[in-house]
Specification:
Helix 2 packs antiparallel against helix 3. By secondary structure, the chain is an all-alpha fold. Helices cover 68% and strands 0% of the residues.
Length: 155
């Protein structure tokens, strides 16, 4: 399962999918323009391809230096063309891969965190309502009898 695929709404411990629907409506009401995941997937794949091509160029340059480089000038040319360019591609590809991998993970983490906080708030509200007990009519107040000085008796 990927982050970008729609999934069935998870149910809260009480089985309340209405809360999830309300959460989705609130997110939709923000009218945020989310980017397409296709661009991120392409850049993630580009990062992997750059790493593989860069590694291949680095190895190719190192082999060419060892096999064909009779003079120091040839060795430097093969190093510059193959190994250094390959290392630069590996670094650029690794940076792209890490950036877009972390972006997907952190996006998933943020959505999950918001959902869990809502579920926890619902559980706390339910616990408070259960602890308060049923709401009944207020108990009648007991009013003590008024003190009257004439009703005092002396023996």
């Amino acid at each position: 399962m990927t982050i970008d695929e729609p999934t069935a709404a998870p149910t809260a411990p009480g089985g309340d999918t209405a809360r999830v629907a309300q959460f989705r409506e609130e997110i939709d009401s923000l009218k945020l323009k989310g980017g397409s995941a296709d661009g991120e997937k392409r850049l993630l794949a580009l990062g992997v391809i750059l790493m593989v091509v860069g590694l291949g160029l680095a190895v190719f340059g190192a082999v060419e230096v060892g096999l064909m480089g009779d003079s120091p000038a040839d060795q430097r040319a093969y190093m510059a063309q193959g190994s250094f360019l390959g290392i630069a591609l590996v670094i650029a590809g690794g940076a792209l891969f890490v950036r877009y991998s972390l972006a997907r993970y952190l996006r998933f983490w943020l959505i999950r965190s918001a959902y869990e906080q809502r579920a926890n708030a619902d559980r706390i509200v339910d616990a408070i309502e259960r602890a308060a007990g049923p709401v009944e009519a207020p108990a009648p107040q007991v009013v003590p009898p008024a003190y009257s000085p004439t009703s005092t008796s002396q023996p």
